[in-house]
Amino acid sequence: xxxxxxxxxxxxxxxVLRREGEPPRYIYLLLDGWVGASVLLPGGERQIVKFHLxxxxxxTPSMCLDQAADTLTALTPVTISxxxxxxxxxxxxxxxRFAAAMFLSVQRERVALMDRLAAVGxxxxxxxxxxxxxxxxxxxxxLGAISDDGFDMPLTQEQIGDxxxxxxxxxxxxxxxxxxxxxxxxxxxxxxxxxxxxxxSMSARQQRVMTRDAAWLLGGEGV
Length: 223
Description:
Layout (H helix, E strand, L loop, with lengths): L8 E3 L4 E3 L7 E7 L2 E6 L5 E7 L4 E2 L12 E4 L3 E7 H10 L1 H27 L2 H18 L7 E3 L4 H8 L3 H13 L3 E4 L2 E4 L2 H8 L20
Antiparallel strand pairs: 1-8, 2-7, 3-6, 3-8, 4-5, 4-7, 9-11, 10-11
Helix pairs in contact: 1-2, 3-6, 4-5
């Protein structure tokens, strides 16, 4: 994937990689920084549908559309590499194992979105924020970005609210509650989960175990 990408480009915070409604000509490799994928609602409100972290591929859902479904905005300074869709598609023809891995990745993303939809629709604010913190911690841990049992989450209260369907005031209130009950320590953007077990119990977050042995793909060869 890195070999297919164009030379990396550094972009400042608030830069728009691609706007909703534009022709989707590329996918994007996020090499550094955080990006938000958002959609504009009829009333003018913004719904952030995903926070992207380093290592993510951005813009893939719009590959099946004539117009991009979401806007990709840098939430921090970022470094990205664009991959033309034609070059990405050529990989499917030349590497069936890559195509199979992408298929499984899409299914994992679908499960994650299914769980998030259930959480946002049926859980209170504190459970939504607990689930978000656990998700970010898990993803950053996989990247080796956890230090001293904590992590940096460079998101504003407004951005968290736009993601979870809450007001910024409500987000601030919940973080105070989490700190006062000894579940979370927060110093500006620095987060430490003091009691992950209790956060999991209140979040109603599904503990999914992703398969590592997809032997049924590619005629029994696996991925």
